[in-house]
């Protein structure tokens, strides 16, 4: 499942995250070191992870892929790999352009696009999903900024870069293979769009709970939006578990 730690624990951390959010990548490094490696094994802290699709069709594809991996009991392995993907600076910057600087240490979070229907069509799964489109790498190759070219050429290149999917089917199949799951079963799940409705349900639930940007944490129902430092997380969890 998407939860680790004791089911009967009185101490809970709930994470709402978007795999297409750079701030979520930074938060992942902290939660992995502080929560998953330290507090969950030692204290019985309960940690839940819920992927949302707030930012882009890439968000939907990545979250859906994570739930397909969960079907084979590999959610956490897939989650870790998805957060290692290097986001295209051009596309990621546009997606995160309106992020809220409300992190505990001045960090921000990827803001939900209020102009985007939370029930994004399932057809978004198919976008830029040519499996025969070349060898995939864990680091999606970002296009470097072009210099010495005419302005029109630069605009065309930028437009092309922004429209290209990062979490395409080829990359997601590669990550599925690296996570150790059956890639044939994964592909069947992915193309069947089996968990698209579940991703939308999680995204709606997050908004109903007041989540407007990612990453967002609930520490025993206390809302924390944006990135949080390792020191601050350690301090908050230590205080929580002391009660």
Annotation keywords:
alpha+beta, globular, two-stranded antiparallel sheet, five-stranded mixed beta sheet, 243 residues, single chain, 7 strands
DSSP strand (E) fraction? Answer: 5-15%
Structural class based on helices, strands and sheet pairing: alpha+beta
Uncertain runs: 89-109, 112-163
- Give the termini separation: 28 Å
Percent of residues in helical segments? 40-55%
> Total number of helical segments?
9
Radius of gyration over alpha carbons? Answer: 18 Å
Number of strands: 7
- The dominant shape is globular
Mean pLDDT comes to 76
Largest beta sheet: strand ordering = 1-3-2-6-7
Q: H/E order of the elements?
A: EEHEHHHEHHHHEEEH
Query: Could you give a short account of the major beta sheet?
Result: 5 strands, mixed
How would you explain this protein's 3D organization?
By secondary structure, the protein is of the alpha+beta class. 46% of the residues lie in helices and 11% in strands. The protein has nine helices and seven strands; from the N terminus they run ββαβαααβααααβββα. A hairpin with a 2-residue loop joins strand 6 and strand 7. The longest helix is centred in the N-terminal third of the chain and has 22 residues. It is globular and about 45 Å long. It starts with a strand and ends with a helix. About 30% of the residues have low confidence.
